[in-house]
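Minutes, structural biology subgroup

Action item carried over from last meeting: produce the structure token record for DUF3097 domain-containing protein (Actinomadura meridiana). EB confirmed the sequence was re-checked against the source entry. Recorded below for completeness.
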Amino acid sequence: MLAGDWRRPRKGQIPEVPAEPGLVAEDPDSGFCGAVVGCDKTGVTLEDRFGKRRVFPLTKSGFLIDGKPVTLVRPAPPDAASRGRARSASGSIAVQGLRARVAKESRIYVEGVHDAELVEKIWGHDLRVEGVVVEYLEGVDDLPPIVEEFGPDTDRRLGVLVDHLVDGSKESRIAARVSSPHVLITGHPFIDIWEAVKPASVGIRAWPRVPRGIPWKEGVIAELGWGDNTGAAWKRILASVNSYADLEPALLGRVEELIDFVTVP
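Output recorded by EB:
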């Protein structure tokens, strides 16, 4: 990037990337980083992990993705053929008559059964197309020995989705103990996967703030008046999710990143 003026690249040097929903990009001038939540002829809207949104113009070489300069462009409208194709819950074109591939050795691990059910509901079709299995860990406290037991290598990659992966958290300290180049640990900022579902989709104004010392899920359903059964509450939340549009961009980008990582040839 430091070789020459990357703001004035040679023709073909900087790739053009469609600003699809969930794509994570960074504005190098301000340092603002977020997922794409909208794009029109005037600019692209990014939303960061705290829910703050900013609009940026679609300038040449105007963004960074994974630290590399790109030019974001408006996604192409669907052609006549693709308009008639069914879409999966993740927004991808559904493969008709799909027969799941034999599972790859690579895996995606998530923290709990709720995480696994949500990933299956939105990305299940895509994962079966790619032959990727999702397993849940029941927490990440023992992640380093679990990774060692898995034995990741070039053809056996591991992606891990972690809840509440923010600076200074217990989860971030555990993740820092894993350094294999064949493992990608990423995550969302929410305390629990429940919060990754947009409140409007569930029919609430916002997820309640639960005081420290109170179990988060129990505190949430108490504040919402949903009784005392967290299992029933989760079924209610999951039933409200129909597509990627019901999920926060901070989760969408991370799951797509993990799927890309474990399916690289």
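Discussion: Residues 1-9 have pLDDT under 50 and may be disordered.
Next step: EB to file the record with the rest of the batch.
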